[in-house]
Amino acid sequence: MLLRGINLAQRNRVAMPELRVALEEAGFRDVRTYVQSGNVVLSSTRSPERVARDVGALIARRFGFEIAVVVRSRAELEEVVRRNPLAHVASNPSRYLVTFMSGELPADFADDLKAVATQEPFAIIGREVYSWHPDGVGRSPLWERLAGKRLGIAGTSRNWTTVTTLLTMADEGSAR
After folding, report:
1. What CATH fold (topology level) applies to the domain 78-172?
2. Which end of the chain has the least Cβ crowding within 10 Å, N or C?
3. Which phi and psi angles does 167 have, rounded to 5°?
4. CA 171 to CA 174: how far, in whole Å?
5. Do 2-71 and 78-172 fold alike per CATH?
6. Inter-residue contact 164 to 41 (CB < 8 Å)
7. Can you spell out the DSSP letters for 52-100?
8. What's the pLDDT score for residue 175?
9. Residue ranges of the chain with pLDDT lower than 70?
């Protein structure tokens, strides 16, 4: 589970231990977090869509703000890692991002990205956008477009190190 926009500067502050407790109290099992930027691995029999709705409502009630919650199952995350369409160019995992979208992208979105991604390769596969930012994301027009809210659907990005770590954590949880 990926939470968009928490613990950014002084906005939407949530302590990870407090989030874990809240999720466990809501009936989720094996709750673990990775770093402070809203990466959660948990076990649930609920559908990914229901987990997203329930966690969004929980955060609004418990912490007082609304954020986008994007959920992928362990199998979906494994598929994201297996695909790895930019492995041949992405040499620095901190500059190789996967943007996880809450739904399918609009049909014209690829053209929109091509217009701004002159030096940054990207690939859209299903609900994920893989993007390689060799010069970093700080002034990247591609990153600005991916991070923006004008799509009408929620998305949140993680670097390749985080993506593969979350899969490892999910594997560890399923081995328990």
Report:
1. Alpha-Beta Plaits (3.30.70)
2. C
3. -65, -40
4. 5
5. yes
6. no
7. HHHHHHHHHHHHS----EE---HHHHHHHHHH-TTTTT---TTSEEEEE
8. 54
9. 7-9, 149-151, 173-176
